Amino acid sequence: MSNRKLNVFLPLLFAVVLALGMFLGHKMPGSNNGGATVFFAKPNKGPLQEVMDLIKAKYVDSLNTDDLQQEAIDGLLSHLDPHSIYIPPSELQRVNEDMEGNFEGIGVEFNITADTVNVVSVLSGGPSETAGVQTGDKILKVNDSLVAGNNITPDRIRKLLRGPAGSLVNTEILRQQKKIQVPIKRGVIPLYSVDASYMAAPGVGYIKISKFSATTYDEFMKAIRGLDKQGMKKLIIDLRQNPGGYLDAATRIADELLGDDKLIVYTKGKDFPRTDYKTKRPGMFEKGSLAVLTDEGSASASEILSGAIQDWDRGTVIGRRTFGKGLVQEQYDLDNGGALRLTVARYYIPSGRSIQKPYGKGHDDYDEDIAERYHHGELVNKDSIKITDTVVYKTAAGRTVYGGGGITPDIFIPFDTSRFTPTLTAIYTRNTFSNFAYQYYTSHRDAFKSYKNAEDFIKSYQPGADLFNEFREYAKKDSVPGMDHLTPRDEKEIHQRLKAMLARQLYRTEGFYEAINADDPMVKKALEVVEKEKD
């Protein structure tokens, strides 16, 4: 059609469309009662949003509506399970960094004592080491912000020190009573989840996993390859106080320990069809004695890994009943910059057990569960474990295992209540061990230079009377009661912990666990179990 003919027909076409629209509008529901047609229907906000809008527009006083919205969301979620949570915008970056396994900053560990920021350790190969920062330095200024004084907090320091990789942060540092200016170029700082890996005995490797993040599998593989080169034939995996994390990290590690085509876990929910997670490839440690350490702080992904190993009779679970978190969350980003973690399914391990403990009595009852276990006697006596699920579950070899929440260990190790005398409790709550170890190390630095590595330090170093007496006086000044009336058990604990904290000061978490595990009853039992078993 030519442009001239189009110009003639266009007005006619518009007129027909207009007439048709008026006719249809007249016939639509609501056209005779002043209501809007369905084409322009007002979206139904729901009473919650309507109330919030009215409060914003009409309420007599000014209000922080962000706080109101958070309370409303928390109130709504309180009627769901305990693990469906709202993450406000201010917390989302920190939560995501923890799970992603890295953040952007300068690479130091610090503590705050006497209103002063002390550099406790410097990440090897990190931005601060490159810039010349040393353990024992005191940070006085970050850019133009003074960071010494009564108002300083760990959160404020972290916000000042962290920033985009490649950006510059100017610090003023006090070193041996001399102020120096140290510019530091920020970088990507790893947040390690494998805290330690070492040979606990000839042929026996030990790996401590503190959480399951995006980098955990790669860290685990690096650790297991290193132990393999040292002649590892048997393995202890420590999952105590591991709160879980990414399912993928747990299933990939399980794939390294279990044979081919074995079910690790499956998920299922009301609107979430069953999904099976199975082993897919030959693993690094499918044969060889295996022990897994758990306690009441082992949750979620920790329970999936230990439960799969128990259900397939692949290894021995040693310790105490795990937390009992068997709910699957999906994270949804919200328009305000926050996020909603909503439970969409449950985890079931190969025997068919649901890991999740009951939560029908409300969040407060659920939150008090661990304390209730202590008062009920479960942490010190296996016979006090409450089995709430009456269904009988069997492992691959036909052994009976228990549902009703968490993984009940094959070998029970009680919680040592004798460790928490009033004196020791005061030392732990005041962080006295850590603060003293930092001060002692920085003032006796040369005395530790002769040790080649953590293993050498553990074998050779013994805290002497001078160290103990110096700690006693330090603890007294820290208002710790009873330091002049210590029991032999208290003195033994103090010696062990001082050595472990000095090992941490020298070799970070690797040194700490190698030192503290030397007298750990759960590790000792695991060594006894795996060494008895044939390769």
Termini separation comes to 87 Å
- Please describe the biggest sheet, giving its number of strands, its sense, and whether it closes into a barrel: 6 strands, antiparallel
Structural class: alpha+beta
The CATH fourth-level homologous superfamily of the largest domain: 2-enoyl-CoA Hydratase, Chain A, domain 1
Principal-axes shape call: globular
| CATH top level label of the largest domain | Alpha Beta
- Mean pLDDT, all residues: 88
GO cellular component, one term: outer membrane-bounded periplasmic space
Organism: Chitinophaga polysaccharea
GO biological process, one term: signal transduction
Cofactor: Zn(2+)
Molecular structure report:
The protein has 535 residues and is α+β, with helices and mostly antiparallel strands. The chain folds into 3 domains: 102-190, PDZ domain (Pdz3 Domain, Roll); 194-415, 2-enoyl-CoA Hydratase, Chain A, domain 1; 418-525, no CATH class. Helices cover 38% and strands 21% of the residues. It has 17 helices and 21 strands. The protein has helices at residues 3-27, 47-58, 65-77, 89-100, 127-131, 154-161, 216-229, 247-257, 301-311, 363-367, 369-376, 422-429, 432-443, 454-460, 465-477, 488-516, 521-532, and strands at residues 85-87, 102-105, 108-113, 116-122, 138-142, 145-146, 168-175, 178-185, 187-190, 194-201, 204-209, 234-238, 263-269, 272-278, 290-294, 316-319, 327-333, 339-348, 393-394, 400-401, 411-412. The strands form 5 sheets. Strands 3, 4, 5, 6, 7 and 8 form a 6-stranded antiparallel sheet that branches. It has a 6-stranded mixed sheet with strand order 10-11-12-15-16-21, with helices on both faces. Strands 1, 13, 14, 17 and 18 form a 5-stranded antiparallel sheet that branches. Its cofactor is Zn(2+).
